[in-house]
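Example record

One chain of 292 residues, shown exactly as stored in the release files.
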Amino acid sequence: MTFSNKQKGILALIGLAAIYASMGLYIRYLSVSFLFFQQIYLRLFSAIVIGFIIFNRSLNLSKIKKINRKEWLLLIFRSFTYYLLGLALFTKSILISKISTVSFISSLPMTAIIGSIIYKEKITIEKVFYLLISFIGVIIISVSDFSSILNWRLGELLAFISVIFTSLSIVLRKKHSKLLNNNEMSQLMIVIAFIMLLITSLFINEGPPVLGWNVFMIMILIIAGASNIILLFLTNYGFEKVKTITASNILTMEMFFAIIFGFIFFREIPSFKEIIGGILILLSVIQMNKLE
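Predicted C-alpha coordinates for this chain:
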Protein backbone atom coordinates (compact mmCIF):
# COMPACT_ATOMS: atom_id res chain seq x y z
CA MET A 1 0.00 0.00 0.00
CA THR A 2 1.34 3.42 -0.96
CA PHE A 3 0.47 6.65 0.84
CA SER A 4 0.32 10.18 -0.52
CA ASN A 5 2.41 12.91 1.11
CA LYS A 6 -0.68 14.20 2.89
CA GLN A 7 -1.59 10.75 4.22
CA LYS A 8 1.98 10.37 5.50
CA GLY A 9 1.62 13.77 7.18
CA ILE A 10 -1.62 12.67 8.85
CA LEU A 11 0.03 9.48 10.14
CA ALA A 12 2.94 11.58 11.44
CA LEU A 13 0.54 13.81 13.37
CA ILE A 14 -1.26 10.80 14.86
CA GLY A 15 2.12 9.53 16.05
CA LEU A 16 2.86 13.01 17.40
CA ALA A 17 -0.35 12.95 19.46
CA ALA A 18 0.67 9.59 20.92
CA ILE A 19 4.08 10.93 21.99
CA TYR A 20 2.53 14.04 23.52
CA ALA A 21 0.32 11.78 25.64
CA SER A 22 3.39 10.09 27.18
CA MET A 23 5.47 13.19 27.99
CA GLY A 24 4.08 13.80 31.47
CA LEU A 25 5.25 10.37 32.65
CA TYR A 26 8.99 10.78 32.15
CA ILE A 27 8.93 14.46 33.21
CA ARG A 28 7.78 13.41 36.67
CA TYR A 29 10.21 10.50 36.85
CA LEU A 30 13.21 12.70 36.00
CA SER A 31 12.18 15.45 38.45
CA VAL A 32 12.99 13.06 41.30
CA SER A 33 16.72 13.03 40.44
CA PHE A 34 17.43 16.26 38.55
CA LEU A 35 16.76 19.98 38.91
CA PHE A 36 14.30 21.72 36.59
CA PHE A 37 16.49 22.90 33.69
CA GLN A 38 18.90 19.99 34.20
CA GLN A 39 16.26 17.42 33.28
CA ILE A 40 15.22 19.39 30.19
CA TYR A 41 18.71 19.83 28.72
CA LEU A 42 19.63 16.24 29.61
CA ARG A 43 16.59 15.08 27.65
CA LEU A 44 17.72 17.22 24.72
CA PHE A 45 21.32 15.97 24.93
CA SER A 46 20.00 12.43 24.78
CA ALA A 47 17.87 13.48 21.77
CA ILE A 48 20.95 14.93 20.01
CA VAL A 49 22.93 11.70 20.41
CA ILE A 50 20.02 9.53 19.28
CA GLY A 51 19.29 11.93 16.42
CA PHE A 52 22.80 11.63 15.02
CA ILE A 53 22.43 7.84 15.18
CA ILE A 54 19.02 7.46 13.53
CA PHE A 55 19.35 10.40 11.09
CA ASN A 56 22.99 9.73 10.20
CA ARG A 57 22.41 8.96 6.52
CA SER A 58 20.07 11.89 5.95
CA LEU A 59 22.15 14.62 7.63
CA ASN A 60 24.23 16.82 5.32
CA LEU A 61 26.25 19.05 7.65
CA SER A 62 27.76 20.92 4.70
CA LYS A 63 24.37 22.64 4.32
CA ILE A 64 25.10 24.64 7.48
CA LYS A 65 27.34 26.95 5.43
CA LYS A 66 24.45 27.60 3.02
CA ILE A 67 21.91 28.64 5.66
CA ASN A 68 21.18 32.35 5.25
CA ARG A 69 20.50 34.85 8.01
CA LYS A 70 16.71 34.66 7.67
CA GLU A 71 16.76 30.87 7.99
CA TRP A 72 19.05 31.00 11.04
CA LEU A 73 16.83 33.56 12.75
CA LEU A 74 13.78 31.38 12.10
CA LEU A 75 15.54 28.27 13.47
CA ILE A 76 16.68 30.16 16.58
CA PHE A 77 13.27 31.76 17.15
CA ARG A 78 11.42 28.44 16.73
CA SER A 79 13.89 26.69 19.07
CA PHE A 80 13.49 29.46 21.66
CA THR A 81 9.68 29.49 21.58
CA TYR A 82 9.31 25.71 21.38
CA TYR A 83 11.80 24.69 24.06
CA LEU A 84 12.92 27.54 26.31
CA LEU A 85 9.37 28.89 26.57
CA GLY A 86 6.96 26.17 25.42
CA LEU A 87 8.59 22.99 26.73
CA ALA A 88 9.97 24.60 29.89
CA LEU A 89 6.58 26.02 30.87
CA PHE A 90 4.88 22.72 29.96
CA THR A 91 7.35 20.83 32.16
CA LYS A 92 6.72 23.20 35.08
CA SER A 93 2.95 22.90 34.69
CA ILE A 94 3.18 19.09 34.68
CA LEU A 95 5.12 19.20 37.96
CA ILE A 96 2.65 21.44 39.81
CA SER A 97 -0.69 20.49 38.21
CA LYS A 98 -2.68 17.40 37.33
CA ILE A 99 -1.54 15.76 34.08
CA SER A 100 -5.15 15.46 32.93
CA THR A 101 -5.70 19.20 33.42
CA VAL A 102 -2.54 20.08 31.49
CA SER A 103 -3.57 17.66 28.71
CA PHE A 104 -6.95 19.39 28.54
CA ILE A 105 -5.32 22.83 28.13
CA SER A 106 -2.81 21.42 25.62
CA SER A 107 -5.75 20.25 23.51
CA LEU A 108 -7.00 23.79 22.94
CA PRO A 109 -7.01 24.38 19.13
CA MET A 110 -4.29 27.02 19.36
CA THR A 111 -2.40 25.88 16.24
CA ALA A 112 -5.63 26.18 14.25
CA ILE A 113 -6.20 29.72 15.53
CA ILE A 114 -2.61 30.92 14.97
CA GLY A 115 -2.39 29.11 11.63
CA SER A 116 -5.58 30.69 10.33
CA ILE A 117 -4.29 34.13 11.34
CA ILE A 118 -0.80 33.78 9.83
CA TYR A 119 -1.68 31.85 6.67
CA LYS A 120 -5.28 33.02 6.27
CA GLU A 121 -6.48 29.43 5.88
CA LYS A 122 -10.15 29.19 5.04
CA ILE A 123 -12.28 28.34 8.07
CA THR A 124 -15.57 26.76 7.07
CA ILE A 125 -18.57 26.09 9.30
CA GLU A 126 -17.95 22.34 8.93
CA LYS A 127 -14.34 22.66 10.12
CA VAL A 128 -15.41 24.72 13.14
CA PHE A 129 -18.09 22.12 13.88
CA TYR A 130 -15.62 19.21 13.87
CA LEU A 131 -13.10 21.19 15.94
CA LEU A 132 -15.88 21.80 18.45
CA ILE A 133 -16.88 18.11 18.49
CA SER A 134 -13.27 17.10 19.10
CA PHE A 135 -12.89 19.64 21.90
CA ILE A 136 -16.13 18.45 23.53
CA GLY A 137 -14.62 14.95 23.48
CA VAL A 138 -11.52 16.31 25.25
CA ILE A 139 -13.69 18.03 27.87
CA ILE A 140 -15.73 14.87 28.51
CA ILE A 141 -12.53 12.86 29.07
CA SER A 142 -10.49 15.29 31.14
CA VAL A 143 -12.92 17.38 33.18
CA SER A 144 -14.43 15.79 36.25
CA ASP A 145 -15.54 18.97 38.03
CA PHE A 146 -17.13 21.42 35.61
CA SER A 147 -17.62 24.02 38.36
CA SER A 148 -13.85 24.58 38.53
CA ILE A 149 -13.01 24.31 34.83
CA LEU A 150 -12.07 28.00 34.61
CA ASN A 151 -10.61 28.21 38.10
CA TRP A 152 -7.01 28.29 36.91
CA ARG A 153 -4.00 28.51 39.20
CA LEU A 154 -0.33 29.02 38.31
CA GLY A 155 0.12 25.56 36.75
CA GLU A 156 -2.88 25.94 34.44
CA LEU A 157 -1.79 29.46 33.43
CA LEU A 158 1.73 28.23 32.60
CA ALA A 159 0.24 25.38 30.53
CA PHE A 160 -1.86 27.86 28.55
CA ILE A 161 1.12 30.15 27.85
CA SER A 162 3.11 27.05 26.88
CA VAL A 163 0.46 26.11 24.31
CA ILE A 164 0.67 29.57 22.72
CA PHE A 165 4.46 29.52 22.30
CA THR A 166 4.60 25.87 21.22
CA SER A 167 1.83 26.38 18.66
CA LEU A 168 3.57 29.48 17.28
CA SER A 169 6.80 27.52 16.76
CA ILE A 170 4.92 24.64 15.12
CA VAL A 171 2.93 26.88 12.76
CA LEU A 172 6.07 28.71 11.61
CA ARG A 173 7.38 25.43 10.13
CA LYS A 174 5.85 26.42 6.81
CA LYS A 175 8.02 29.57 6.70
CA HIS A 176 11.23 27.58 6.15
CA SER A 177 12.89 27.24 2.77
CA LYS A 178 13.50 23.87 1.10
CA LEU A 179 17.23 23.89 1.97
CA LEU A 180 16.99 21.67 5.06
CA ASN A 181 15.09 18.39 5.20
CA ASN A 182 12.99 17.60 8.27
CA ASN A 183 15.75 15.49 9.86
CA GLU A 184 18.34 18.25 9.53
CA MET A 185 15.91 20.89 10.76
CA SER A 186 14.93 18.82 13.80
CA GLN A 187 18.54 18.08 14.71
CA LEU A 188 19.62 21.71 14.39
CA MET A 189 16.71 22.99 16.47
CA ILE A 190 17.46 20.55 19.29
CA VAL A 191 21.17 21.49 19.29
CA ILE A 192 20.25 25.20 19.46
CA ALA A 193 17.71 24.57 22.24
CA PHE A 194 20.21 22.44 24.20
CA ILE A 195 22.73 25.31 24.21
CA MET A 196 20.04 27.78 25.31
CA LEU A 197 18.84 25.58 28.18
CA LEU A 198 22.35 24.67 29.34
CA ILE A 199 23.30 28.36 29.53
CA THR A 200 20.04 29.11 31.39
CA SER A 201 20.73 26.31 33.88
CA LEU A 202 24.28 27.54 34.54
CA PHE A 203 23.09 31.15 34.77
CA ILE A 204 20.69 30.35 37.62
CA ASN A 205 23.40 28.28 39.38
CA GLU A 206 21.82 24.84 39.11
CA GLY A 207 25.30 23.38 38.70
CA PRO A 208 26.24 20.17 36.89
CA PRO A 209 23.92 17.12 37.29
CA VAL A 210 26.33 14.99 39.33
CA LEU A 211 23.74 13.37 41.62
CA GLY A 212 20.68 11.19 41.00
CA TRP A 213 22.20 8.86 38.43
CA ASN A 214 21.17 5.20 38.28
CA VAL A 215 20.34 2.65 35.60
CA PHE A 216 16.64 3.43 35.71
CA MET A 217 17.19 7.18 35.21
CA ILE A 218 19.55 6.52 32.30
CA MET A 219 16.87 4.36 30.67
CA ILE A 220 14.27 7.10 31.18
CA LEU A 221 16.63 9.67 29.65
CA ILE A 222 17.16 7.46 26.61
CA ILE A 223 13.41 7.02 26.17
CA ALA A 224 12.84 10.76 26.72
CA GLY A 225 15.58 11.63 24.23
CA ALA A 226 14.15 9.34 21.58
CA SER A 227 10.68 10.81 22.21
CA ASN A 228 12.00 14.37 21.85
CA ILE A 229 13.79 13.87 18.54
CA ILE A 230 10.93 11.85 17.06
CA LEU A 231 8.41 14.39 18.37
CA LEU A 232 10.17 17.31 16.68
CA PHE A 233 10.66 15.38 13.44
CA LEU A 234 6.96 14.41 13.31
CA THR A 235 6.03 18.03 14.07
CA ASN A 236 8.15 19.39 11.22
CA TYR A 237 7.04 16.65 8.84
CA GLY A 238 3.34 16.67 9.71
CA PHE A 239 2.87 20.44 9.60
CA GLU A 240 4.75 20.58 6.31
CA LYS A 241 2.25 18.22 4.68
CA VAL A 242 -1.07 19.06 6.38
CA LYS A 243 -3.01 22.30 6.81
CA THR A 244 -2.72 23.71 10.32
CA ILE A 245 -6.45 23.60 11.09
CA THR A 246 -6.68 19.91 10.18
CA ALA A 247 -3.40 19.17 11.99
CA SER A 248 -4.65 20.90 15.13
CA ASN A 249 -7.72 18.68 15.12
CA ILE A 250 -5.62 15.52 14.77
CA LEU A 251 -3.53 16.49 17.81
CA THR A 252 -6.60 16.29 20.06
CA MET A 253 -6.06 12.52 19.78
CA GLU A 254 -3.56 13.05 22.59
CA MET A 255 -6.40 12.47 25.04
CA PHE A 256 -7.46 9.31 23.18
CA PHE A 257 -3.92 7.90 23.46
CA ALA A 258 -3.72 8.92 27.13
CA ILE A 259 -6.66 6.57 27.81
CA ILE A 260 -4.96 3.75 25.89
CA PHE A 261 -1.65 4.23 27.74
CA GLY A 262 -3.48 4.31 31.06
CA PHE A 263 -5.02 0.92 30.24
CA ILE A 264 -1.77 -0.64 28.94
CA PHE A 265 0.65 0.58 31.62
CA PHE A 266 -1.57 1.06 34.68
CA ARG A 267 -4.52 -1.27 33.90
CA GLU A 268 -6.90 1.69 34.21
CA ILE A 269 -10.24 0.60 32.75
CA PRO A 270 -11.74 3.47 30.70
CA SER A 271 -14.94 4.88 32.18
CA PHE A 272 -18.09 5.30 30.12
CA LYS A 273 -17.52 9.04 29.69
CA GLU A 274 -13.92 8.44 28.57
CA ILE A 275 -15.12 5.99 25.93
CA ILE A 276 -17.72 8.50 24.69
CA GLY A 277 -15.12 11.29 24.63
CA GLY A 278 -12.66 9.09 22.74
CA ILE A 279 -15.29 8.16 20.14
CA LEU A 280 -16.14 11.85 19.59
CA ILE A 281 -12.46 12.71 19.05
CA LEU A 282 -11.98 9.85 16.59
CA LEU A 283 -15.13 10.71 14.64
CA SER A 284 -14.10 14.38 14.49
CA VAL A 285 -10.61 13.56 13.19
CA ILE A 286 -11.96 11.13 10.57
CA GLN A 287 -14.62 13.56 9.30
CA MET A 288 -12.23 16.52 9.27
CA ASN A 289 -9.81 14.58 7.09
CA LYS A 290 -12.62 13.58 4.75
CA LEU A 291 -13.30 17.30 4.24
CA GLU A 292 -9.71 17.76 3.08
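Notes: The CA atoms of residues 35 and 50 lie 22 Å apart.
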